[in-house]
Amino acid sequence: MAAIFADPRLKATSNNGHGVCIEEIEGLIRVYKNGQVERPPAIPIVPCNVTLNGQVTARDVFINKYINLWARVYVPSCPAGNLPVLVYFHGGGFCVGSAAWSCYHEFLASLAHKAGCVIMSINYRLAPENRLPAAYEDGLNSLMWLKQQVLSGSSEHKWWMNQCNFSSLFLAGDSAGANIAYNVATRVAIDNAVIKPLCVKGIILIQPFFGGESRTVSEKHSTQPANSALTVSASDAYWRLSLPVGTNRDHPWCNPLANATAGLQELRLPSVMVCVSELDILKDRNLEFSKALAGGGKKVETVVYKGVGHAFQILHNSQYSQIRIQEMMSHLKAFMNR
User: Fold this and answer.
1) CA angle at 143 for the pair 139 and 145, rounded to the nearest 5°
2) Alpha helices for the chain (secondary structure H)
3) Which residue, 143, 212, 213, 311, could crosslink 255 as a Cys pair with Cβ 3.0–4.6 Å?
4) pTM score
């Protein structure tokens, strides 16, 4: 299949005739009263074969052509076979981002090589055109598609599926992508048999994007640099654009702890790794979420990365980014190979 890099969701258009802009996150998205959505090309879109240095093979595969649901698959170039599988969801507040963004392409290609895993990076539908739960549905449907390819012994996908250990599958993502990974995992947990022979062994949540009507201390008092990837005002705008109309930030998709934590005890989740950034406005909310999971009897590993903020691993916006990225990749590799 040809590389999918002209992502129609990310095309910038003229604002002529669109009227009043009702929501804007500067440089990323503008939403007009007439329903028109503009996404300026903030980050380059790259084809699957760009700058992989022979370390990784990457190709794009269609999951559902009718809704433009596809994935970019990364396989280490010298695979040993029987590799763990990481199903990854990109960030972007549910409203922006792409599996073809250069920053995700570089990060995931490097992770596949250094962690020794096969990565399936999902290009899901975006809000506000497709509000939640569309992204969750795309995540679950991607797993069902993967299940069907495994059961059918797909010759088209043999090039990467022959390297996979599907009983060692991990759901992962950063920011909104981590929120998607968690919500897909909770759906699978209701009946794990639905995705057999796939088996979710763990969940990796990198700076998971959650919220709530009440502000945490880090949301109220964290001083964010000018190049911060996430501010409180941007966070609020993303939630207004992605949650079902008429709901607020205490909706369970935004705030899984809003209605106490009793429900967490009933969830049959696998091991969870939560990656927290020290300077992130989400730090306190992420730590509270980790504590609640542990209190609900879940096996949770929490790692705090010092001196860096939200999405440091893809934006390289801190002097400590490179050091922390290497630390993160080592932690992820260890978690997947336990």
Assistant:
1) 110
2) 102-115, 134-152, 158-161, 176-190, 217-221, 232-242, 262-266, 283-295, 312-315, 321-336
3) 212
4) 0.95
Contacts of 51 (CB under 8 A, 6+ apart): 106
Structure tokens at 288: 């509270």
How confident is the model over 137-187, as pLDDT tens digits? 999 999 999 999 999 999 999 999 999 999 999 999 999 999 999 999 999
Catalytic residue among 235, 280, 318, 321: 280
| Residue among 30, 58, 32 at smallest CA distance from 42 | 30
Q: What is the side-by-side strand order in the sheet with 29-32?
A: 21-25, 29-32, 37-38
Query: Which amino acid, 245?
Result: V
For the question of residue 280 being annotated catalytic, the response is: yes
Q: Which of 98, 310, 318, 321 is catalytic?
A: 310
Q: Which pLDDT score, from 0 to 100, does residue 273 have?
A: 98
* Residue 85, both tokens: 């599988």
Q: Which residues contact 262 (CB under 8 A, 6 or more apart)?
A: none
Candidate list 175, 228, 290, 321, residue with the active-site label: 175
pLDDT digits (tens, 9 = 90+) for 234-285: 999 999 999 999 999 999 999 999 876 557 888 899 999 999 999 999 999 9
**φ/ψ of residue 54, rounded to 5:** 70, 0
| CA distances for 148 relative to 75, 158, 222, angstroms | 20, 13, 46
Q: By C-alpha distance, which of 242, 302, 262, 260 is closest to 278?
A: 302
Annotated active-site residue 222? The verdict is no
Q: Which residues of 104-135 are buried (b: 16+ CB within 10 A; e: fewer)?
A: bbbbbbbbbbbbbbbbbbbbbbbbbebbbebb
* Cis status of the peptide bond prior to 133, with omega within 30 of 0: yes
- The residue with tokens 């336990």 is 338
**Is 85:168 a contact under the CB 8 Å cutoff?**
yes
Summarised one tens digit per residue, pLDDT across range 11-38 is 444 445 778 999 999 999 999 999 999 9
323-330: long-range contacts, CB 8 A cutoff, minimum separation 24: 325/107, 328/206, 328/275, 328/303, 329/110, 329/111, 329/114, 329/115
